Amino acid sequence: MKKSLLFALLCSAGLAGAAPFAYVPNEKSGTVSVIDTATDTVVREIAAGKRPRGIAVAPGGARLFVSDASANVLLSLPTGGERRGSTPLGKSPEGVGIAADGRLVAVAVEESNSVTLIDAASGAVVADIKVQGKNPEHAVFSPDGRWLLVSAEEAEQVDVIDVAARRQVGSIAVGLRPRGIGFTPDATRAYVACELVNTVYAIDLASRKVIATIPAGKNANGIAMAPDGKQVWVSNGTDGTVMRIDTAKNVITATVPVGKRPWNMAITPDGAKLYVANGRSNSVSVIDTASARKLADIAVGELPWGVVIE
């Protein structure tokens, strides 16, 4: 078999068998950079509209779901790189989340103050759910698939959506401008970074109350939870650092310098490495989570918005 044909077949299969990969949407470049986490090198670039922002990856890594804020659509992209389809959305879609079973995709839509639920297989809109927070940025599924937590730029709360009921059923008071959200694996707690108060809030999901406030760096925003739930990381946009939080004690245990304006992040499935999108450095920093030491900076496209890994 010719090498070119073999490569095409591998691409159409979504780079299967070589996971995990880190996928980085580059807002100004209109691409997704694909990083092989074994070698920490960019192995391909995927065209992803004009302004890709939020991103989620299907279980198994076969497809990416990317919000294009320029065209106001959700793109469905095979990880081999050919465009599969798109779903129209409201104006200025941002964060994208996917349920653990891969069936539903959620998109936070800023200007309509809503979260759109989409059937991952068909691309059909299942529901468009209004939320109280203005300019929602992230919509994140709990690991058990029961809840969506939604953060908004102009809010002092995170909104709670009952996924089965398709409606908001409550809200949880936090600090001004909540951003990144991460759940513990057992879905009992969530951690929320609030940018304008430089604080991470630990939330008990059963009572829907804050159980701890953790001082972070300036303009805290991104959150990444370790697979075992023992640590959670927060990025500090102005400080150019990430911090490690011990979830047993809810205290900072390490601070690591990264690039300029670190934003959204992801951890490898084995929990060994953290990947941080540095929006103003056009790079991704790789952190060894055990030693809290930076291993590498990987050049990507312009204005990387976040990272997902599968």
Sequence-ordered SSE layout with sheet pairings:
Elements: H1 3-12, E1 21-26, E2 31-36, E3 41-47, E4 52-57, E5 63-68, E6 73-78, E7 85-88, E8 93-98, E9 104-109, E10 114-119, E11 125-130, E12 134-141, E13 147-154, E14 157-162, E15 167-173, E16 178-183, E17 189-194, E18 199-204, E19 209-215, E20 220-225, E21 231-236, E22 241-246, E23 251-257, E24 262-267, E25 273-278, E26 283-288, E27 293-299, E28 308-309
Antiparallel strand pairs: 1-2, 1-28, 2-3, 4-5, 5-6, 6-7, 8-9, 9-10, 10-11, 12-13, 13-14, 14-15, 16-17, 17-18, 18-19, 20-21, 21-22, 22-23, 24-25, 25-26, 26-27
Describe the structure.
- This protein is mostly beta strands and 310 residues long.
- The chain has one domain: YVTN repeat-like/Quinoprotein amine dehydrogenase (Methylamine Dehydrogenase, Chain H, 7 Propeller), CATH 2.130.10.10.
- 3% of the residues lie in helices and 55% in strands.
- It is built from 1 helix and 28 strands.
- The strands form 7 sheets. Strands 3-2-1-28 form a 4-stranded antiparallel beta sheet, with no helix packed on it.
**Helix run count:** 1
Number of strands: 28
Q: What is the 3D form?
A: globular
Q: On the 0-100 scale, what is the average pLDDT?
A: 94
Evaluate the radius of gyration.
Answer: 18 Å
N-to-C span: 29 Å
User: Which class best fits the helix and strand makeup?
Assistant: mainly beta
**CATH topology, which one?**
Methylamine Dehydrogenase, Chain H
In total, the number of domains comes to 1
Strand order of the largest sheet: 3-2-1-28
Secondary-structure element string: HEEEEEEEEEEEEEEEEEEEEEEEEEEEE
**Helix content range:** under 10%
- Low-pLDDT windows of residues: 1-16
CATH superfamily placement: YVTN repeat-like/Quinoprotein amine dehydrogenase
Beta-strand percent range: over 45%
CATH class category name: Mainly Beta
Largest sheet, if any? 4 strands, antiparallel
